[in-house]
Amino acid sequence: MPIMSVDVSHIGIDRKPSDVPLVDVMGGAARWESKVHEHGLIALVDVMPRLVPEGQTADSAIVQAARVSYGAGTKKVSEDRGLIRYLVRHRHTTPLEMVELKFHCVMPIFVARQWIRHRTANVNEYSARYSVMSDRFYRPSVDNVRQQSTSNRQGSEGEPIDTATAQEFLDYLDRIEGEYKTYEQLLDKGVTRELARIGLPVNVYTKWYWKCDLHNTLHFLSLRMDEHAQEEIRAYAYAMYALIQPIVPHACEAFLDYNLEAMQLTRLEIEAIKSGEALKSDNKRENAEWAAKRARLGL
Ligand SMILES: Cc1cc2nc3c(=O)[nH]c(=O)nc-3n(C[C@H](O)[C@H](O)[C@H](O)COP(=O)(O)OP(=O)(O)OC[C@H]3O[C@@H](n4cnc5c(N)ncnc54)[C@H](O)[C@@H]3O)c2cc1C
Which residues form the pocket of ligand 1, taking CB atoms under 6 Å from any ligand atom? Predict the structure, then answer.
């Protein structure tokens, strides 16, 4: 049966190629890859727009979309930076959704658990029902076995624990990872892969393709490059940022200036600055946050 059985010849379609020379934003490479920890990686495998007019970057897709609403008033490439900075500063987010980024990621399951909470991406993950899990496990170095924070129940002090306890922890991981042999033996005996996998620890590696638009990728980065995020996922977020920075340099610069390295002041904080008085809040955490902001502002 012919695939195209519908006659569309009467519909006028202009298929003339553009005479503007286009260049590949990834320089013709199939992927840009960054190693993360011993066994992990993140690779940029595709971008939309992949081809842009010579001398431009994928930032041009943001500007092109924005000018639909703002008109063709500012057309020079030198003015693109200002327009993108305006958009980011004023949270005009939809033009940033015109850029799409696709990554191939290999990470431990406990990192994937945090990552998958970002619902606006399209994800396709390795199936441990269909395939055998690899014998790759994440291990921190001895001097990165961190102490539990006393003030933040969800984080570490950033200080390493004593070497003997760190070694005890790594020996414990060794014992659990040693059970991978049992997983293999049980598969050999015919236990189904979908059940055999449930005995594996969460530091075993999984992989996926993760596709997301630039606006939501920057939202992911703002949360996962932040110091409150767990160090292990932060390493992936930093690697992701390094991969996309040359693709959308103006958007990344604006993201640092107006988001990641910026600060939001609450109404109470603005009043405290104006009055020179203490913060009108008896909440301990809010006061600690205000003290940190004051220190950063040199107040
Ligand atoms: C430091 C840190 C600690 C965390 N601790 C915990 C924890 O202890 N327990 C826990 O469960 N989670 C925790 N999370 C996950 C967190 O609560 C968010 O689920 C995660 O960061 C994703 O954020 P998001 O929803 O803004 O992002 P995305 O899912 O990427 O969504 C982006 C934006 O799209 C919009 N959006 C997406 N889906 C919807 C929807 N269905 N309805 C309305 N708007 C939507 C929202 O505006 C959202 O901000 C933690 C995250 C961080 C960074």
Answer: 117-120, 216, 219, 223, 228-229
